[in-house]
Amino acid sequence: MPPKKGKEAQELEVSTSLTSTITDLLTEKLAEHKAEFLAEVRDIYTKYESKLENIETSVDDHELRITGLEQFADSTSTDLMAMQATLTTVVAENAKLRAKVSDLEGRSRRNNIRIIGLPENIEGSTPTAFFSQLLFDTLGLDILKSPLELDRAHRTPAAKPGPSGKPRPVVICFHDFKTRELVVRSARKLRGKLKYNDAPFLIFEDYSPEVLEQRTPYRDIMKKLYGMGLKPALRYPARLFVVLDGGSKKFLPSLKEATDFADSWARQHSTSPTEQD
Predict the structure, then answer these.
(1) Are residues 73 and 154 located together in one domain of the fold?
(2) Per the database entry, which stretches of residues form a coiled coil (predicted)?
(3) Residue 271 has what pLDDT?
(4) Cβ contact 113:185 at 8 Å
């Protein structure tokens, strides 16, 4: 009979067997968890790899679009620079053409005058003859030796006003420029005294709209200078000057300078009550 194992030997055998069993179980479980973990990692990697590929594709697409936009911007910038250069040339040429047109229009009006304030319908069916005789009768033999030779005379092409409306201006074209100048100078001296059947009227030179736009701002200051006893005038197209005592001319290149001159003149020629006494 084999000898009986001792108690310690039996306990060691049981312990060894248990350890082996536990080790096998743990190894098996670890293998399972490792497989599951690797599977999850592979799945996550696959998902992120797919997303990364999509991102790369999107980035490549954006790069292509950005490159296209940069090229388009460069092309557009070049086109704009060319257009700007062309526009600068066109603007300069347009300014020259406008100046030429304004000059030509001014020359075409060179022999014209414009009469403001004459009642409607007084000229009847023969305006040229009527206004020739009217100017001759108004200015008198001291200025005009005979009725004037006029090429044409007409009202401005505006709607005819009603009975209480403001009469349209009359435009008259003289045959001779010197005669026109004589009439304008004489009318300037008689300003405020020209009348037709008690209806006062004024005679002006006939300017183009561009020239009138330049001259209009000087109306108030010229009225002020007239009221101060001075003799202001506008040289073509819009150069203001004042005729001083002795016949010298004082040119006032801007509206501000004209205003400053008028204020200074008023201060210098004002008389205080003490001085009057």
Answers:
(1) no
(2) 38-65
(3) 56
(4) no
Of 143, 123, 121, nearest in space to 132 by CA: 123
Q: What is the dihedral of CA 268, 270, 274, 275, to 10 degrees?
A: 60
Q: Which residues contact 90 (CB under 8 A, 6 or more apart)?
A: none
Q: What are the tens digits of pLDDT across the range 77-113?
A: 999 999 999 999 999 999 999 889 888 888 899 999 9
27 within a domain of the structure (yes/no): no
Domain that includes residue 95, residue range: 65-104
User: Where a domain ends, among 47, 82, 104?
Assistant: 104
Total domains present in the chain:
3
Cβ atoms of 131 and 150 within 8 Å: the answer is yes
Q: Which H or E element spans position 42?
A: helix 7-108
Answer yes or no: is pLDDT of 182 > 90: yes
How many angstroms separate the CA atoms of 196 and 212, rounded?
26
Look up the pTM and report it. Answer: 0.61
Q: Which two tokens mark 214? A: 């330049």
